[in-house]
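Final report, section 2: Outcomes. Of the targets proposed, Aminotransferase class I/II-fold pyridoxal phosphate-dependent enzyme is the one most frequently requested by collaborating groups, and we therefore present its record in full.
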Amino acid sequence: MTPTTAPAATLRATVLGRMAELLDRSPDPTGDEHARAFETELADRFGTAHAVAVSSGTAALHTALAAYNITAGDEVLVPGACVVMTIAAIRATGATPVLVDSPGGELDFDDLAAKTTARTKAVLPVHLAGRCADLARLTAYCADRGLRLIEDTCQAQGTAYDGRWAGTFGDAGCFSTKDGKLLWSGEGGYLLTDDAAFAARARSFATHGFLPAPAQPAGSRLGHNYRMPEPVAIIARANLARFDDLLALRREQTRHLLDAVADAPGLTPIEPGPRHDWNGYAPLLRVGLERPRDFCARLARRGVPNSVGTYGLTTADRLASLNDLALAPCPAARADLDTTLAVVVHEGHTPARLSEMARIITEEARQWR
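The predicted structure is given below as tokens.
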């Protein structure tokens, strides 16, 4: 692998130089130079008309839903295989999340159709581990029914589907720049869109409603403080400038680990579909061993972080915090997540560290009973 497994000297110099300049003119409550520059650079990089920088991926999701006036009484269709942050954003608007079964990360279109009602206002696919649903079919489905398509692309930066960036198929794509994402800045997020009116409403919502938007005078609607802070924007801009290297590195890291566990019994790589140009977000393995969730938990205790064992990833209908919603079970999504080992990797993982994780995975698989 290339030596970019640690922050490069040029990244450090860029960030420290801009931070020093920022401190020289701080405190400035009106300062947004770097956040606005980040937006321009994002739109140029990913080929959209607009980008809106915000404080987190969850803020991006909430902002997108609110900017499309999704509110109490509305329903949002979301895959059963999703993270709690997606559901939290829907609930923050007052809308009701409706779970759609999602075997292998793909939305079940029969279940989707059965759960689309007069109250449905949007479909919100979640691109877990950088893998996408059938976005061409989903785009057509939403267009035929007048539904908003809002993509949760927090883990899919750099994934392309049918030659087009994930997060640019729908009305809006929502992204996170939390540590661990390919484009990281500690915390933060952004939205991509070609809808100018939406972008204006999103930017206003993320600034307490203070900014005017079409048919929305300044101060006419409540918003939130979801602005991206300038220090965060400085780091995000510096990493965006080297995004191609970060994307290539993550793919190399994932391939390194998958190759290194090739002899582990009961574990099979989950390859991306033919229409994916996958970002390699996490090495994905199908666990064919007994008690797969216990196996993932064992790996986490031995220092191999993973989605199930470390973060307890499961379908949303099994989350105690959502018991009041009585969400419909999603058996195919549950079976898929319960048997998926998604190893957490990040830019700081060296080849030696990846090899050590692979050794532990293989050792535990051979000893598992």
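The chain is about 40% helix and 15% strand.
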